[in-house]
Design goal:
Chains A, B: Keywords: Cytoplasm, Polyamine biosynthesis, Spermidine biosynthesis, Transferase. The structure is a homodimer of 280-residue chains. With 280 residues, the first copy, chain A, is an alpha/beta fold. Helices cover 28% and strands 31% of the residues of chain A. Chain A starts with a strand and ends in a 5-residue tail after the last helix.
Chain lengths: 280, 280
């Protein structure tokens, strides 16, 4: 019988998730956050940062596939990819499935997250061994200021936009992202849920609209993230992100060519979200 | 400060939802189930049956709009509608927004749910006053056995298929539903989630395939239902449920003509769900 529970404390969610826990595998504190690894009977291992579940072995593929494959397939030839955050390695693993990728730079401020992932999540952290990868334990916000037209795709896989990750959703940051992208580059970032965080979604979208000529948004239903109907915001210089630019051949569980298109909301509803006509 | 919590006990979910509670407004026990009404700071009033949240004032529109408008718009002229379950009145309210509807029969075995809804959820239960409505407190499984080609649309808005609602997802029941539908009738039922309950989804779909010539499935993301990516299963005698048959003019928050089509999964992914190729 399971008697131990992990009660999530997500500062942005109006409810809490309670996970039955079979074992607490790791508890530590880095310079930046509390890190915990749990074993759950149903979800497998769960990575928890500052009390919020980030990913679990059972469902991590959903978030990671859609964060990586949508922008990479929206680009005709993604050779240079930057990931800010993503220390668990899940997005990196998916990015490296594209043979077009010659260089993947992962900038995560917290190297202990990477170490914990290498130790406890071998299926997620497998990509760190790839010779195309450069890992930097720096502040992504500072790192990007020195990049100019370097990347085809930039993916921001941060924690929730509260505390030290907040700056990664500001207009100022998006200007740095724009400059760091090549002339036909694409940005994607996780931008909270339509159900519980629509004001945040709107704020980020507004900031993106000030910087990028093409702005869009797609969704995936993430069971571990309270709010569930999760948004990924896109800024693009040239390419329409709704259309894959190459034949979709990647090995994925949920992502496919059809699911790429399906991930994008109907434009009529997307407009209602932006304008404020739709509010839950 | 909020110090009281409702900890859900959903027998079909691997996690529990915890709602901060500002007030417990009602606790009772009917012949069939425990009934509770909570007030939550974020969700408004929440209806809880046997420890499982059924609907809340903030998000109830999602489930109710999609349970009602998809089958009703998939039908060219829905005059006679049967709702089994749905004692809170939410689906009924949406059904009655269609001027084509001449008669709506609601059969809920538990009349105390209806009484509680009338008392605590005036915006959901408003439809019970409509002269087109006939409410019967009977066993829907028995009621439907005496119907023959009576209804254009049958909506089964039951609790989870455990305990006394289980029979409402069996092949035998679907044969009664088929007989109770007119020659171009459409059935819709709530059939759990893709994330946590895919075996149930598959079982129901298989039973439907034995009875109806056209079987399909659509989804909506329901925050209060653990599993979130909720499925509604469709059995149809003639009409393709993916296409609205009349101009969409209903006043709704999330449902629209575009969202009707969007609710249906790409066929390639739907096939993977059915075949078992997709498993979370």
């Amino acid at each position: 019988m399971v008697d131990v529970f992990f009660i999530e404390r997500d500062p942005y969610a109006p409810i809490r998730h309670v996970y039955p826990v079979s074992q607490v595998l790791y508890q530590g504190k880095s310079q930046f956050q509390e890190i915990m690894v749990l074993e759950s009977p149903f979800f497998g291992k769960v990575l928890v940062l500052d009390g919020v579940a980030q990913c679990d072995e059972r469902f991590e593929y959903i978030y990671h596939e859609f964060m990586a494959h949508v922008p990479l397939y929206a680009h005709p030839n993604p050779q240079d990819v930057l990931i800010i955050g993503g220390g668990d390695g899940g997005v990196l693993r998916e990015v490296l499935k594209h043979p077009e990728v010659k260089r993947a730079v992962l900038v995560d401020i917290d190297k202990e997250v990477i170490e914990v992932s290498k130790r406890f999540f071998p299926t997620m952290s497998v990509a760190f061994q790839d010779p195309r990868v450069l890992v930097l334990n720096e502040d992504g916000y500072k790192y990007i200021q020195d990049c100019e037209k370097e990347f085809d795709v930039i993916i921001v896989d941060s924690t929730d936009p509260v505390g030290f990750a907040h700056v990664l959703t500001t207009e100022e940051f998006f200007r740095y992202v724009y400059n760091a992208l090549k002339d036909d580059g694409i940005y994607v970032g996780q931008t909270e849920s339509l159900h519980y965080h629509i004001e945040i979604v709107r704020r980020v979208q507004k900031s993106l609209h000030k910087v990028f000529p093409i702005v869009d948004m797609y969704t995936a239903v993430i069971p571990g993230y309270a709010g569930y109907w999760w948004t990924m915001s896109v800024g693009s210089k040239v390419h329409d992100p709704r259309e894959p630019k190459r034949p979709v051949s990647v090995q994925a569980k949920l992502y496919s060519e059809d699911m790429h298109r399906y991930a994008f909301l109907p434009k009529s509803f997307y407009q209602k979200v932006l304008s404020g006509e739709y509010n839950p």
